[in-house]
Amino acid sequence: MTALDLDFVRSQFPAFASPVLSSHAFFENAGGSYPCAQVVERLHRFYTDRKVQPYAPYPGAQAGGAEMDEARTRLAALMGVAREEVSFGPSTSANTYVLAQAVRKWLSGTGQAIVVTDQDHEANSGVWRRLAEEGVEVREWRLDPQTGSLDPADLAALLADGKVRLVCFPNCSNVVAEINDVAAITAMARAAGAHTVVDGVSYAPHGFPDIPALGCDVYLFSAYKTYGPHQGIMVIRQEFGMMLPGQAHYFNNATLYKRFTPAGPDHAQIAACAGMADYIDALAARHGIGGDAAARNRGVHDLMRAQEVAVIAPLLDYLAARNDIRLIGPRDAAHRAPTVAVDLGRAAEPVSEELGRRGIACWAGDFYAVRPLTAMGVDLEKGVLRMSAVHYTGADDVARLIAALDEVL
User: What are the helix (H) ranges across 166-266?
Assistant: First the structure.
């Protein structure tokens, strides 16, 4: 495979030329990635040339509406789904909340069950657990407290009686970072008569999903973590989406991408999301990856992952060799996202502050992963130190991080 051209990649991100941002090696990507230039340019253009009500019969409105449509169409093509199956919302937490209200109406009073995990960010856990208020049985797929892993055999036991109608789980956790076998889990759920909701927020920055290959009914992620603007993106497959009660204006119920968007769309942010597709296409062209949009996306995904695995491995080696900390999640870079959380056995935030003074941008806390950290025995008052990379992270960044850790740990 062709190696990722890191110089080209970094040239696509204004942050690397910023006097403020470029002073630090950036390891807070799990909290939000840098936006690519294509997104910044589209957002600026919308606010300067198209900031009117879109779709009206005059040039600026027509151009704005066309760019919003372009974003949906091109992202759908990258992910291998119909354009109607891509919904935008203010955040993934908001999108998941609205979806849960639809499921609440769907399952209320039926005596049926859902499965949630304790490996999730709270956005894909709390809203589902509250369905118990409507008499929906909530079953918990529990992680291994030592490794943080989810065992499919435990899920099989939860599905065995045929009462489960929905399984909600992460593509990977934002602290454990192990990449779950989404295709295998969704196949297991489907065989038991259950639909699936996948929280992809912590995985999508490492490559946009190939939805047909994953087989899920819903996949949620955040554009501001995939080099874009602050939007939540929800892919919801046609059959499942039209089966659920709509949550928006009744006269929009016939349009799938409007059914679960009760708030008015953020025109500029949606239009700017087309810049993410521009970026994927730019990477594909630079590295000689051809084919249709889905094929280009798969090729770029593989490039990103290869870069991330190679770059983050030395950090994992370094942390695993220390006996004064606990590395959360898998030791093998190939089986995890490059989001690395460590339990220091002491308050983690002062350590992140010390790293900041040494040119490393990262943070500490619970990262809304209260349930998995609690299940793994982490003291929430102390939290974890989290260092998260993406494909634009270089080997020199990691070397700089390791040197700083040597000074502060």
Answer: 182-191, 211-214, 238-243, 256-259
